[in-house]
Amino acid sequence: MADIAVGGPLPASGPLALASRRSPPRLRPGWPLSVIFLGFPLWWVTGLSTFIFLIMAVPMAVALRRRPVVRAPRGFALWLFFLVWMLIGGLTLFADAPYGVPGGELSRLLVFGYRCGWYLAITVVLLYVGNLTEEELPRARVIRLLGFMFVVTVVGGLVGILAPHLEFPSLLELVLPKSLTRNDLISSLIHPKAATLTTFLGYEESRPIAPFAYANSWGANLALYLPFFLLANTGRKPRWRRVLLVSGLLLSLFPVIYSLNRGLWAVLGLAAAYLTLRYVHKGNRWALRFAVGGAVALLLLVTGSPLKALFQQRLDTPHSNDRRGQLYVVTTESAAIGSPVVGFGSTRDLQGSFASVGGGERPGCKGCGVPPLGTQGSLWYLIFAHGFVGAACFLGFLVRRFATHWRDPDRVSIAGCCVLLSFAVFLLIYDLLDAPLYTVMIALALMWRRERSGTEVR
């Protein structure tokens, strides 16, 4: 073997010279998204399914930092103003809110920090996906990842139906101290469960939640992933993708009905109508035929199976309507009276309840317990936690982006606007400022890239 002087020049040729010219292996742009979505079943089992979004924001931010120029979509100033306003609202975290329980524990800081992390993560993913070029990260690749998540959500829903009592300690749960894992919020985030049991129909019924923490989260995520599943498996695609499309839609029907989720049912109906109208207006003759055929097949399947009785029972049992309505009124009044400009930074427990002077859930009176002020709908959280100014900035940014794309005939823009409409309905009834909003930001980024490049996804 030839001697090489330390610090001297390397040979001009040969294996060592070739190796020296090789650059270190680099991960393909967009790899954090693949880690999140392709590995999501694993993250659910390990208890990291919520935190993986926050963890992957770090390499995304580093990648943005290394870019010579970082662009932002039009209207982004509204979003930045919202983030600043949200941080200012942290100064009121321990202020007493009208109708709320006075005082507060230091754990309120932990929840505020957790939400700050989410707001940061969704901002980073918007800029990360939006700044990558089509050559670096094709939009079709991102669409397939989100379509894959629809399949994961459907499979999780089917597991919730077939094995409703399935639950087990996650790896994260085993290593964290018991003082943390006993916390209700942390436990719901790191403890894998297939379903949650409910009795408001008069008997025990399971509602699928896997691979998420709550039944409503499951429904919201399924609805927001659906347009991308359709986009990934329609158009000029191999035959196996069309088989996957039909199979996925049919199988999703069972967990959708068993979820007892009226909001999900309404949003899916809205999404179907919107997509049909947009494609018919675009001149797609098959869109109306597909919609009518799907509606007929759905009607026959539901009316000819036990799903019909379950569906009708849920419509006849609006158990939470009155309580939700009262909570919305009290939440808005509390924010308007106590802190209309910056809000209270986080939620507050309500004094008493709507069914009992003493308040609180107790045996024989589950309805006596009232959710905290600022819950049961992200719109009400925005108003209560960040004031009317913060809520206006948040909504203004989304409306600004929708107004930019709603007439765009591109398939990605149609799917993205469908996601925004669905999210707007969910804002009224669900708490979803986490994974669902992450999907919304990816949709905005994909539409924004279409706006800049003009390329279409076939």
Molecular structure report:
By secondary structure, the chain is mainly alpha-helical. The chain is built from 19 helices and 2 strands. The protein has a two-stranded antiparallel sheet with strand order 1-2. Strand 1 and strand 2 form a beta hairpin. The longest helix is centred in the last third of the chain and has 28 residues, at 378-405.
Short description:
The chain is mainly alpha-helical.
What characteristics describe this protein?
458 residues, 2 strands, globular, transmembrane helix
Average pLDDT level? 85
Order the strands across the largest sheet as they lie in space.
1-2
Run of helices and strands: HHHHHHHHHHEEHHHHHHHHH
Measured between the Cα atoms of the first and last residue, the distance is 56 Å
The stretches of 5 or more residues where confidence is low (pLDDT under 50) are 1-12, 15-20
Protein name: O-antigen ligase domain-containing protein
Organism: Nonomuraea cavernae
Keywords: Membrane, Transmembrane, Transmembrane helix
Q: How are the secondary structure elements laid out?
A:
Layout: H1 15-21, H2 31-38, H3 40-46, H4 51-66, H5 76-88, H6 107-131, H7 139-162, H8 171-175, H9 178-181, H10 184-190, E1 195-198, E2 205-208, H11 215-232, H12 239-258, H13 262-281, H14 285-303, H15 307-315, H16 321-338, H17 378-405, H18 411-429, H19 435-453
Antiparallel strand pairs: 1-2
Helix pairs in contact: 2-4, 2-7, 4-6, 5-17, 6-19, 7-11, 7-12, 11-13, 11-18, 11-19, 13-14, 13-18, 16-17, 17-18, 18-19
